[in-house]
């Protein structure tokens, strides 16, 4: 009986692995066919030498960094205060943070365009820097469900109330408590949320395209519409970036403190 169960487990694992790996192998093989009659990395060389690739990827990385910083500044104090003082509001806050998963990005960005157009009270879209700031805000909204849950999970592993009371006894203010006590204790969780945010920003297309920003997502779409082999190379590069972030999350999770099973 046990051998039969093991056989079916390995069979399911093999089928799943084949289903997952085979398209990647086929994509990689196709990306090597740019030079007629032989395999080469010409498609990858063409991608990396393309000035637009360098410019758009750099732009998206910078936007991702600002998105992560804004997400940390917004989520960490909020999740900390909810857990410390307002636990009854936790279901409401969790519901709000889930809304970006329900509301399509195109709806959010059209709302931004209507609210922050050049004729509005806050004309973010009147300047390039204002549009960049609005894009960062939009990406922070998209990443909010992942960042909030990562930080909230990290806060569950520490005794928030005891740490806060000890810091207050020693004369620490709220800013010091959050920046020098709470944040270092949930740093692994914050980094997990940061890598998820990075992966979202790098491949996002809708917001960047409708706000007309030179991001990596629209570049991927443009290459896919006008080239044959470079899109396959870019797909594998994007896949490697995303799975690199996921792997780092798995590595960091090994260093995260285990839950203390405390109510706070």
UniProtKB/TrEMBL annotation:
Kinase listed as a keyword: no
Location(s), subcellular: Cell inner membrane; Cell membrane
Entry keyword Cell inner membrane: yes
Domain ABC transmembrane type-1 intervals: 53-252
Regions crossing the membrane: 7-26, 57-80, 92-113, 133-151, 186-211, 231-252
Membrane topology: Multi-pass membrane protein
Keywords from the named record: Cell inner membrane, Cell membrane, Membrane, Transmembrane, Transmembrane helix, Transport
GO BP annotation list: transmembrane transport
Coiled coil: none
Domain of life per record: Bacteria
InterPro entries documented for this protein: MetI-like (IPR000515), MetI-like_sf (IPR035906)
Family matches, as Gene3D superfamilies: MetI-like
Entry GO terms, CC: plasma membrane
Similarity section: Belongs to the binding-protein-dependent transport system permease family.
Protein name (database record): Spermidine/putrescine ABC transporter permease
